[in-house]
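A favour, since you know our structure tokens better than I do. Just paste the record in under my message, thanks.
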Amino acid sequence: MITASTWQGELRAAVTSVGELLRLLDLPVTAAVDLQEQLQFPIRVPRSFIARMRPRDWNDPLLRQVLPLAAERTIVAGFGPDPLHEASARRAPGLLQKYAGRALLITTGSCAVHCRYCFRREFPYQEHLDGAARWASALAELAADPSVHEVILSGGDPLSLSTDRLRTLVNALAAMPQVRRLRIHTRLPIVLPARIDAELLEWLHGITLPLVIVLHANHANEIDADVRRACVKLKSANAVLLNQSVLLRGINDTEDALAGLSEALFDAGVLPYYLHLLDRVSGTAHFEVDEVSACKLLGRIATRLPGYLVPRLVRELAGAAAKVALLPEFCEPGPLFIREDAAVRRQTDAKLSHPDVGV
């Protein structure tokens, strides 16, 4: 039964009005905020996430991730609807392959929270999720490909699906002998920890595939006692817990913020994995931190924390065979990071000639 106390009830009660969000935080309306309720990428924030925000503070790092700003409507060169050229990575409806040996299933277009920097904020979910047959062609494509050893459940957020639907999907994947690992990319344990309920845990305990769960937290303030309890539960299902973050200007682009995040993650049983430079989707230019500043920042983090708490700084480039790693800068002159070479630059705007290799 869905009640206000269940995760489904909390999801349905999420705030979907900019005005209500501001009222809950005792903040006035200003010209910088986009109050238009018919946003192309509408607001959605669980109330449990809002409860972690500081009232009357425009600079709260959690609020800044979800509050629509008028700046999103500014057209900026180099920012577009599909920054990673995912349209070229499509192998079947709902199935993308960017890198060899692993493929990504778009399980749903739904998320518990709409992060304003989301690189899939303009993703054509309707073209990938077609009614009752939404996964049929994707699963058939995977079953026929012996080279795919790891399947990544993504979206949207896969944990916004019911546990029964997840069970059906993963059972089909586990029946494929070539699939050796399952990875789930999810933000729900962070923004809606009630999702980690008894039914989900029972299912996770029964999964036969080795399981990696990649969470998404950007700031230590996101990780409260409920989130820590959710992570402990996930670890009890023998899941490897990793975290990936996005480097965001004004939110986590300081030494203290990133170090605090790594420490909070480790206290919750999660290892920092990736720190992504912003994917340049339309409407997100105000979040961008440049490469040189990012490398200098990671250099300071690397001298402050043990190596296992320092995430890999990466940029995803359309056409690259893997994420491009950027090395921390420890000394002058110039950053000591790996730049994409001319071949990768050419690939960025070119479609691949082989349909079975994703960008």
